[in-house]
Write a structure and sequence with these properties.
Layout lengths: L6 E4 L9 H16 L3 E4 L13 H11 L23 H13 L3 E4 L3 H13 L15 H9 L5 E4 L5 E6 L3 E6 L7 E3 L7 H11 L4 E5 L6 H11 L5 E5 L2 E2 L15 H6 L4 H9 L14 H7 L10 E2 L2 H14 L2 H12 L12 H8 L6 H7 L1 H4 L6 H4 L6 H16 L7 H14 L4 H13 L7 H8 L1 H16 L2
Parallel strand pairs: 1-2, 8-9, 10-11
Antiparallel strand pairs: 3-4, 4-7, 5-6
Helix pairs in contact: 1-10, 6-7, 9-11, 12-13, 12-14, 17-19, 17-21, 18-20, 19-21
Amino acid sequence: MKKQTVRTRFAPSPTGFLHIGGLRTALYNYLFAKKNQGQFILRIEDTDRERYQPEAMSTIIDTLKKFGINYDEGPDLSGPYGPYIQSERLEIYRKKIDELIANNRAYYCFCSSERLEKIRTSQSKKSLPTKYDKHCLQLKSSEINANLKNNLPYVVRLKVDPGETQFTDLIRGVIKVNNETIDDQILLKSDGYPTYHLANVVDDYLMKITHVIRGEEWVPSTPKHVLLYKAFNWDMPIFAHLPLLLNKDKSKLSKRQGDVAANDYLNKGYLPEAIINFIALLGWNPGNDKEFFSLDELIQNFDLKKVQKSGAIFNLDKLNWFNSHYIANKPTKDLLKNVKTILSKKDFYKPDLFSLEQIIDLFKSRVNNLEDLANKTQFLFRLPDYSVELLVNKKNEPKKVKEILNYFLNIILNYQKSWTTEELKNYFDKKRESAKYTRAESFWPLRVAITGLENSPDVFAVMSLLGKEETIMRINIAIEKINQI
């Protein structure tokens, strides 16, 4: 018997940005398909027309591409089933609805919104689950035909029979549900669009999806989908529901507590490879101590059996740790475009003042993200208005600090060697020793004078970047501050 080709899919709704949790779902589907020499499909589920945002689809597609998650079939790639945009497949869903009605597995419902609200209110008062009361299931054929002939608004509902529904989840094991708890779910809305439940099942079957890998929040919907597969007499895919992403307080990851859009992190200068590496480990354990993975290495190592059931904490400190590692080890030339984009939005940035390569080299081992890098460069373009107390620390008297700064100023005025970091460092160290100044007492005021900061990169690397004239000017500003004490 020929082995079935593994086919997974990512099926986002174009109702806004791509959530970081959605990105992880897409990643796991991609990894599993590629690990098994299968195909990864992108399907846009745009049947919720009230929440539909036209620009969201292109944003989702572009975001996936930025992370290297490339699909084998989808909206802008031709495949054997055409472009996968659900709003273009309404005729397919309508035919499947007709099949269900003809086989007595679904039925027309003409109930008004007022009647449905009364049912819900009554059930709530009695502390009962709010669900449809199957009123229209009792309608005679003549009544149904008359309502249809009179163009009465309707929806189509799934007919849920008594009993028990169960399915096996690769991550959670066997899940059983009493059908009494399952509502006669709407399959076709009054606007003619299918609901998520119908379109999802129909498309997964027609697109030959073998494994449905999605978030834990879809577990309650899965029994409805199982019933639909049975109603159509179709073989079911294998289900795997991923753990939720959680805030530190173990609440569901939400925008109220921080950024949740994948693009938010890209815009702040988090590298795609760092984000991918980080989110891959949110719920999946490779089974060893290895933490840094390329996308190819993730494909080789990924195993759904090693995905945990419990929620995964989204730890920003851990993401920063990953990102700082990738920035520090990435060639400077590969960071130029992103850093320039971020810096160009800063009011202090003067593009022709310094070499961007030199700026990146100076900071890339000291930052969590490229936004952080851009912000840290401000003192290069605009000396901060620092306090004289920062310049004169507890170990140095103002008179001594002024003496040291004047000494270094004189050295610079007469400096004839090449203006490079190493030459400056060696020369100033020798001059410091000959004047019998300690490193602490001499280089601290020099650092503050040059940068205006308590913490900064190597002072001689900064001097090398600023140039001789700017360095002289900044030391003179520091001396003037001391003169005003």
